[in-house]
Amino acid sequence: MIKVENLHKTYGKLEVLKGIDYEIKEKEVVCVIGPSGSGKSTFLRCINLLEEVTDGAIYIENVKVNDPKTDINEIRTEVGMVFQQFNLFPHMSVLDNITMAPIQVRKVQKGKAESLAFELLDKVGLREKAHNYPEQLSGGQQQRVAIARALAMKPKVMLFDEPTSALDPEMVKEVLDVMKQLAFEGMTMVVVTHEMGFAREVADRVIFMDGGYIIEEGNPEDVFGSPQNDRTKAFLGKVL
Amino acid sequence: MDLLDLRWDIIWNYREMFLRGIWITIVLTVSGYAGGIILGVLIGLGETSKKKWLYWPSKLYVDLFRGTPMLVQILIIHLAVIPTIFGQSYGFMVSGILALLLNSAAYNAEIIRAGIQSIDKGQMEAARSLGLTHSKAMRKIILPQAFRRMIPPLGNEFIALLKDSSLVTVIAASDILYAAKIVAGAYNRFWEPYLVAAVLYLLLTYLVTKLVAYVERRFSNGYNPRRKREGRSLT
């Protein structure tokens, strides 16, 4: 479903991604782990072109994403994204946060968009917060709204960029539970995370990145249970 | 009051001129400001643009109009620009409004640029990740948030422009200050006319301050920091 070929990304002289090749299949949950500065967030952000790709190619359902002829806005409607800092729109109610993109981009009628929004709010357990503003919610609640907002576009893939890193520890679980539910329902997901427990339990495949390369990848039992590369061993030794 | 032996009757004799002056000052300021907002939005957006052919002219415009005295700008526009382009003068009203408009556009542009750039870049990323085009993300997400932050400085700019509008007396615009000058010249008395002019400007700026405070309250609906702590749920 997502194919990445020889992906390079440089900021000025700094090369952050040094040639990434990877393929993600439909309904797969892929967790990307690795030390900070390893390029894992950049890799994720290249997929929906929030970062300009320096070299290489990314295909989503056989459409080349970084082709000037591709309508990137259309690709992005199929790719939901959840950010570390939630990035909810503070001037809109929770309900409007969720219905904005379906109404503005998909031209869904307001009533329909709202009933979908309530469905999604039920799913993340926040129906009663529909008319609150983001500032009135806790971090965990905001992140769950952000997930609902992304899901409202009915994306084929969901990208999570360290979705629990900005949360207080007691709120991490409520967000991970929503993500687990999504994975269980068969959503294709790419998750950059430091939550090794989540990766181990939910991921179909785990990617370990370091220094701009994919060092090791495989199913979670192998990567966590018997890592092959020394750098993976060193990293896991520190975080587990 | 006996000390200065003030003669308020001379003001009363020229009351119509002062009333007209108030009207002229208001028309000049409001028209100049309204045009200055429209042009300022365009230039402010230009200043935040990544396209060089939009950025550099906008930047140059702002530097030019902020870096030169308004008095000089008024004289150049009235005595040089308009006669050269149109072959004649259209009077102080046209020149005055144009000068105020061009000048305030530069200041408004800076306010608008700063307002836009003060919005966290995650907001634009979130909007784009949902499939919004850049301009739609600007209109629906960035500008509504930035606008709230722009209201106080835009209000200050309105007050500054109101006061600076008195500079148009140099091209014989019959505003408040002009009325005062006429009275001063006619009676050779200075306390009364200039004190009255000062009080009239003060009253106008006071009204504007109240208006800005009202607009600020009006647009903070549903997003009021003072209200946010109520209803916050603890998890």
TrEMBL record, chain A:
Q: Per UniProt, which keywords does this protein have?
A: ATP-binding, Nucleotide-binding, Transport
Cite the ABC transporter domain residue spans from the record: 2-236
Provide the GO MF annotations for this entry.
Answer: ABC-type amino acid transporter activity; ATP binding; ATP hydrolysis activity
List the InterPro entries: AAA+_ATPase (IPR003593), ABC_ATPase_HisP-typ (IPR030679), ABC_transporter-like_ATP-bd (IPR003439), ABC_transporter-like_CS (IPR017871), MetN_ABC_transporter-like (IPR050086), P-loop_NTPase (IPR027417)
Pfam families documented for this protein: ABC_tran (PF00005)
| Full protein name | Amino acid ABC transporter ATP-binding protein
Species assigned in the record? Lysinibacillus composti
UniProtKB/TrEMBL annotation, chain B:
Please name the GO terms of the biological process aspect recorded for this protein, alphabetically. Answer: amino acid transport
- From the Swiss-Prot or TrEMBL record, state where the protein is found: Cell membrane
* Keyword Transmembrane set for record: yes
In this chain the ABC transmembrane type-1 domain maps to: 22-212
Q: Which GO terms describe its molecular function?
A: transmembrane transporter activity
> Where does it sit, as one GO cellular component term?
ATP-binding cassette (ABC) transporter complex
- Where does the source fall among the domains of life? Bacteria
Q: Principal localization? A: membrane
Membrane-topology descriptor = Multi-pass membrane protein
Write down the InterPro entries for this protein, in alphabetical order.
Answer: AA_ABC_transptr_permease_3TM, ArtM/GltK/GlnP/TcyL/YhdX-like, MetI-like, MetI-like_sf
Reply yes or no: does the keyword Transmembrane apply: yes
Pfam families, per the entry:
BPD_transp_1 (PF00528)
Q: Which UniProt keywords apply?
A: Amino-acid transport, Cell membrane, Membrane, Transmembrane, Transmembrane helix, Transport
Which family does this protein fall into?
Answer: Belongs to the binding-protein-dependent transport system permease family. HisMQ subfamily.
The name this protein carries in UniProt is Amino acid ABC transporter permease
Species name for this entry? Answer: Lysinibacillus composti
Taxonomic lineage from the root: Bacteria, Bacillati, Bacillota, Bacilli, Bacillales
